[in-house]
């Protein structure tokens, strides 16, 4: 059995659905695309993953000869509706950059160990353009919504690549769009029009981006009011452009076994608990699913406040009133926005009471704006 065959069969044995291999060459088309949209993607280009450097693998690993790329199908079990309204499926599946001690973190570790046993040097922390790598290896093609699609699976996939120092047998590319001709379902469905043309995404309008990249250490924590209004109840990720895609309908309509862990989480997961979370709720319901980007609770709380505001239910006014006393300015500010969105008499009274004692200018501005919006809507309707 050839080395290439051994590697591919091992990958399939440990749970990957597809495997492909390409030479460890640079990706000039990716470099050109990122460079052309530098302003839009500056947060990423300047970030720690150094994508422009990693797009030339041999600059980080001079001995690199091949890239082994894999597809993991993370939608093999069903996702509870109570969670899909709030959390992207890839995060529910606990496979996105999973820690080593979790099953989906152990899988790439097993792959690296196997490659090393075969005598390979394996590159470390080379953040490749995964979709382009997988397309060049013939195991995915593109969707107009910017996602990669694997034949027979759809776009609910997670891609992982391994750079090694040996030459292997290489696969043929499928760098092409596989969508039905003329289909623009994803572009029409995106609430913020983040997909501004096929295969082009403005990240700053993307709901997923706004749920987890908007942090002070990244691009700042402010979310534009226009975007807040359109986030619905999404608190970590967004699957709308994948849910409407014709190419995903077979999988979405398929009767799958329950993920029993997610069933347990869904039973006691709520936005109100996320807004004013206990240590236990954070460790058992937030961290197991949403460990990927956010490390500080205040961003989860902010997102929960936005979601509660968008629900517009006066029943959540007491929860938001509690959040108006949170030690974090960010939480108080977005709780104020949510109270203004609900606009009931009790919500407005809470805003007025807090305006008199608030000392942080950004929160004062949110409270004033919330009261102004409430008054604009008028007091003819009694929400109390």
Describe this structure in words.
The protein has 384 residues and is mostly helical. Among the domains are: 3-75 and 92-164, no CATH class; 270-384, Leucine-rich Repeat Variant. It is 45% helix and 8% strand. The protein has 22 helices and 7 strands. The protein has helices at residues 3-13, 28-36, 42-45, 51-54, 57-60, 81-84, 89-92, 103-117, 130-136, 185-189, 207-212, 225-230, 240-243, 249-253, 260-267, 271-275, 279-286, 297-311, 317-323, 329-342, 345-355, 361-377, and strands spanning 18-23, 66-73, 141-142, 148-149, 157-164, 195-197, 200-201. The strands form 3 sheets. Strands 1-2-5 form a 3-stranded antiparallel beta sheet, sandwiched between helices. Strands 3-4 form a two-stranded antiparallel sheet. Strands 6-7 form a two-stranded antiparallel sheet. The radius of gyration is 23 Å and the shape is elongated. The chain starts with a helix and ends in a 7-residue tail after the last helix.
């Amino acid at each position: 059995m050839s080395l290439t065959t051994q590697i591919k069969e091992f990958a399939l044995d440990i749970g990957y659905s597809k495997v492909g291999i390409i030479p460890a060459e640079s990706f000039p088309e990716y470099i050109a695309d990122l460079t052309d949209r530098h302003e839009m993607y500056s947060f990423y280009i300047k970030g720690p993953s150094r994508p422009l450097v990693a797009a030339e693998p041999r600059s980080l690993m001079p001995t690199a000869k091949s890239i082994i790329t894999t597809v993991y199908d993370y939608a093999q079990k069903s996702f509870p509706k109570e969670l899909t309204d709030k959390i992207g499926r890839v995060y529910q599946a606990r496979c996105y950059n999973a820690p080593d001690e979790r099953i989906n973190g152990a899988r790439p570790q097993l792959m690296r160990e196997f490659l090393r046993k075969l005598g390979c040097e394996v590159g470390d922390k080379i953040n490749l353009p995964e979709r382009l790598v997988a397309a060049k290896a013939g195991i995915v093609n593109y969707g107009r919504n910017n996602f990669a699609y694997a034949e027979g699976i759809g776009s609910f996939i997670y891609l992982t690549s391994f750079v090694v120092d040996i030459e292997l047998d290489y696969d043929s590319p499928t760098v092409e769009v596989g969508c039905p001709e003329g289909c623009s379902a994803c572009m029409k469905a995106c609430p913020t029009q983040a997909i501004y043309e096929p295969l082009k995404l403005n990240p700053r309008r993307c709901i997923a981006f706004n749920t987890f990249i908007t942090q002070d250490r990244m691009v700042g924590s402010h979310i534009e009011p226009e975007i807040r209004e359109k986030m619905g109840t999404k608190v970590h990720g967004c699957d709308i452009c994948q849910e409407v895609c014709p190419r995903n309908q077979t999988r979405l309509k398929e009767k799958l076994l329950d993920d029993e862990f997610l069933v347990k989480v869904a039973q006691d997961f709520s936005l109100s608990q996320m807004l004013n979370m206990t240590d236990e709720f954070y460790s058992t319901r937030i961290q197991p699913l949403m460990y990927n980007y956010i490390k500080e609770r205040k961003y989860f709380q902010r997102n929960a406040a936005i979601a509660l505001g968008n629900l517009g239910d006066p029943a959540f006014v007491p929860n938001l009133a509690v959040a108006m006393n949170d030690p974090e300015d960010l939480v108080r500010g977005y709780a104020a926005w949510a109270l203004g969105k609900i606009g009931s008499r009790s919500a407005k009274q809470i805003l007025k009471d807090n305006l008199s004692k608030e000392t942080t200018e950004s929160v004062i501005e949110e409270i004033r704006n919330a009261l102004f919006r409430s008054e604009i809507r008028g007091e003819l309707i009694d929400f109390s």
